[in-house]
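dumping this here so i dont lose it again. seq + smiles for flavin mononucleotide
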Amino acid sequence: MDTPFKTRITDLYGIRLPVIASGLMWLADPVYVAAVARAGLIGFMTAASFPDVAALRTGIRRCRELSEGKPFGVNIMIRASRDGTDRVNPLIDAVIEEGVKFVETAGNNPEAYIRRLKDAGIKVLHKVPGVLRYVKKAEALGADAVTVIGYEAGGHPGVEPVGSIVAGVAAARAVKIPVIVAGGLGTGEQLVAALALGAEGVAMGTRFLVSEEIWAHRQYKERLVAAGETDTTLLLQSMRNTQRALKTGHVAMIQQLEQAQPVDTQAILPHIMGTVGRNAYETGEVEKAMLSCGQGVVFADKIEPLAAIVDRIEAEARIAMGRLNTLYRPG
Ligand SMILES: Cc1cc2nc3c(=O)[nH]c(=O)nc-3n(C[C@H](O)[C@H](O)[C@H](O)COP(=O)(O)O)c2cc1C
């Protein structure tokens, strides 16, 4: 593939730019992930968004049809089940049997599952917060690449607040497998900066939320376009489940509940159920939900086709690279 920015990540996925579109709960569906594929990048469909394994299988087939032969992957959240039911292996059965080639794991340690994926020939990208011991663990477990998330990120940036410019270079120095950095990244300038840090790619979530192929209500996207870098906040630290979300009335109410001593987790749980967020994506009533969103929302300045966003990122990266080339005179 002709690419101006060739790294081990562009080689691994056969993509045009070293940019990946990470899993997005409820939103990274076949239509969005296929749009990412057709734009020359790779996206990961969020397995947890499907009501059951049969629906995931149908989703994988649909994504394959829409992707026109381009690569795509599935995001699998590794989580211990409260009731002892194994929720992860049935998803892994599905991706193996459906011939998926790329998986992004996130959440907990994938040790119990990674062998099965690798034995099936699937390339595994494991995503971790910006803490070196997790990065090294991903490599030790046999991940093909690791994504390290800085605390600017939307979703779960981890319990320790480490920024992406620190996490990226620290991770790249610590392991031999290719590192992808994420968290607050949404522009071509940042892509070039990430490559300078030693990372071989970037992952974006928030930047792509305003793409036309994201099914959520237009009012939600308009809110993101209007938002700036100070319009997100961290919450759920009291449950050691730190989340970065858009500042909304609902989020302020949860933060208020978190002030109680001792924290009443049972009182908080109904407000953070995934279905609350899904309803807001459907209705556009953003104020009534906790919606994952990173500081990079400042770059989400227009609702447009995904391919147009990717073209802008590439153009910005080329200009940034050109600027650096005029600064640097090997001597
Ligand atoms: C709306 C939204 C939903 C997300 N859902 C998931 C998810 O289900 N699984 C996951 O691994 N990461 C999820 N993430 C995190 C992203 O995959 C990615 O790591 C993150 O968005 C990167 O940081 P950025 O938002 O600053 O680009 C979500 C992020 C956002 C913004």
